[in-house]
């Protein structure tokens, strides 16, 4: 089968970029040779989504250590990329349970040990021994994928169309973030309107936020946010200094003006930028909440740590999705309102130039589309 991979036998991590389309062995279930295969399924991939994490792997700015160390442990050279994917089951192991051939499934991307303290105390999303699909375990940017059945999430495509079903994993990140605090009748600011930030916007509206403000630099993302019904946009200039960590006085001033001098009830840091974090701390009201989702492999400087304490700010971190609580919430949100239509028509632009046929994959074209569109899908 064909797959998009990083191959350490042919490329060094530091001196390469992108995903190579190569021929790899079809996955098989052979319980006689590997008894653990009884717990696996094989799917024919229908769609796969490109995440910010995948962009980090493409640019070699994220997850290098995890990929290289996991390959060394497996004594393998090739990692199949991709953790957002959706497909049809074509093979099942003998111990799989209720799943059957023909079922359509998405996947929780975190593989858990089920044995550590966290797993035994309903904190599976922060399992001490977790592997991540497409990073420390082969993923779904391939024609077929072999995955442990316990992370498969059965989906009714009569209720959630396949192009949206593939988004359940990243959409779940936004659902988890929104569930950290009571949103109803609250003023909120989303710092960073990337794909997860835009998903969050839809969820916050659904949950009854009183006013939603977005802080963003990218014109395309700003247009999409406006089309999705955001109340206010605070546009910022992109810093040319990668070491810039100071809060933006104009951004904070504007947010405080919009919120009647109080500051927002809840700030969502979705950008993974140091100055964005400091903007959150400065703009959120006394006694407010800051929800942290954005990631960056770097040290952050908090400009005024005392302010977190003296303002009584509560910090919440978001790691993946709560299994399976977040998935149930995601299912209910997507099945029972018009959010699907907005995801398809606005975020995915009705599939216009945002869906790439896998057979036509070209490295240069793919990179161009990643630069031009907020969210793109691979169709198999």
TrEMBL record:
What Gene3D superfamilies is this protein classified in?
Medium-chain alcohol dehydrogenases, catalytic domain (3.90.180.10), NAD(P)-binding Rossmann-like Domain (3.40.50.720)
Q: List the molecular function annotations (GO) for this entry.
A: oxidoreductase activity; zinc ion binding
- Transmembrane region(s): 187-204
Q: Which residues form the Alcohol dehydrogenase-like C-terminal domain?
A: 195-328
Tell me which UniProt keywords the record has, alphabetically: Membrane, Metal-binding, Oxidoreductase, Transmembrane, Transmembrane helix, Zinc
Highest taxon of the source?
A: Bacteria
- Ranges of residues in domain Alcohol dehydrogenase-like N-terminal: 39-154
Task: Identify which cofactors the protein needs according to its UniProt entry.
Answer: Zn(2+)
Q: Which SUPFAM superfamilies does the UniProt record give?
A: GroES-like (SSF50129), NAD(P)-binding Rossmann-fold domains (SSF51735)
Q: Which family does it belong to?
A: Belongs to the zinc-containing alcohol dehydrogenase family.
Annotated protein name in UniProt: Enoyl reductase (ER) domain-containing protein
Organism annotation:
Candidatus Staskawiczbacteria bacterium RIFCSPHIGHO2_02_FULL_34_10
